[in-house]
Specification:
93 residues; alpha+beta
Length: 93
Amino acid sequence: MFDEKEKPIIPSILCEGKVAVTPMDKAIRYGGTMEITHTKDTRINTNRLQGIVNSVNEFYPNVKVGLPKTEDVWYGFRPCTPSGMPIIVEIRK
């Protein structure tokens, strides 16, 4: 876990580690490594998960995050345009 004095308090993006850090009440969400693929294989890639853990521990050495249990990992599909850019439209009524 982490010492409350060391807990990140603002959302951050660890660009070099490709990890997003989001403080959420008493918890912290670490996320990253979007994978664009054609496959329907939804298994968790533990190498990518380990990369997130390693990045967090490198950037926040006092946090000491460990590899979570598979059932505690959230993952899922995200909508994305081919270019990665958002779609902005005006909706008129």
